[in-house]
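This part of the workshop introduces the protein records we will be handling. A record pairs a protein's sequence with a compact description of its fold. Comparing a sequence with its tokens is the quickest way to learn the format. The record below serves as our worked example for the rest of this section:
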Amino acid sequence: MTRLTVLHLVPVLFAAVAHAGEITIELRPFTLEKSFAATALPDKGCVLLQIEPKSWADFQIIELAAHGSRVAKGDTLVSFDPETIDKKLVDLRQSLDANTLNLAQAELDLKHLQETAPHKLEALRHAAEIAKEENSYVTNTRRKATEETAAHDLERKKQLLSNQQEELRQLTKMYAADDLTEDTEEIILTRQKDAVVTAEFLLRMETLEYKRTLEVTLPREVVTLANNERDTAIRLLKAAEDIPRSIKLQKLELETLKITCQRDKDTLAKLEADRSQFKFTAPADGWFYHGPIENGRWTPAEAVKALVIHGRPVVNRPFATFVPVATKLVLLGFLDEASARSLKPEIAGTAILAGREDLDIPVKIAKIAATPAPDGTYRADLSVTWPKDFTPVPGTSVQIRMISYHQEAAIAIPTKALAYDPKGWNVEVKLADGKTAHRPVKRGRVSKEDTEILSGLEVGQVILTSGDDPKPKS
């Protein structure tokens, strides 16, 4: 399609007017022009700077490149104060190390508990059986035997005393028959008297022992053994419940430590990922812009408020844009609904740069959005051929002018000459006898002041115009 020059934008004057308020119909060019603003922005390849933290929320700016600055690859675009998060990372790593050691110890304790539990139960079971056997033996056998033994020992001591007394009596009687007691006999008698005294002592002690055995020692032993049987049985029953429960508790503790360690690992991983976002550097040579450039718009208003030293950008939302030098710049505009309907892809036009109106910047519509944005405008993507002696930067604003409709020979009348009634649009036509009549017409396209008439009027007819804009008749 041949590109139209600005000359096509100049409206053709009406035909000669017979007198004020009358217009003679004739064919003439009819043109619709659309003008809208557009901005030079990257077609693709720009990088939106956005903090996407997983757990950390405090990102305070300590270094920031100037808006619109040209940066080289590796230059710092923005960096944040890492002091607090670095301390948190140190604490978290130490906590993770401690919990890892506790986990290893808990695993070892559980293994030991599982391995020793059967032995502990078996030992308690064996002790309970022994206690039961001991108690049964004492109750049924040894108590009576002990009583008999004590009684027997007492009788032996009595018999021993009796024997010693009888022997002393016989010796005394035998030696008394002699008139003179010899020294040897005296020694024997003394010895025998000592034996009697000893036997008496032994009998007295044995009597005490016998009494204590029957009244204290043996009953106490019986009670002790009965209690031991009872207590070992209780310990066995308790251990039979405690040991499995201890194993379950140890397993729960182990699982809790595993969860704690895993959570610490997850928290550490998130925090380390957040820490990696504390500095943004240029991935290539390019420009740095405060505010996001997305969806064909550069919207710095809200984002730039926080882009100051000690400021805190909003997280999970783009706050700045990096544009590589190699990125191709296209023109993006946002049309009102009427312009979006009038313009079509491949329509050509020109871009006018304020201050450099001498530049010829050809443009062509590449695509128009089929649906409106939330603000009611339609996005238009335009291809552009930039002049060789002009290098635009992202954000450059231009005014686009395009011919959306053109008919070389058309019937066009002032819009104010049209009227509307229940039958539709009509025009007041002057008849040959000087009278007037309303003729129905079919409208075509409408410019700012003129309306194209598709049918209902012919060349040479005279129509009347009104100073007022046409209004529908009731």
The chain has a mean pLDDT of 88. Helices lie at 83-176, 183-275, 337-342.
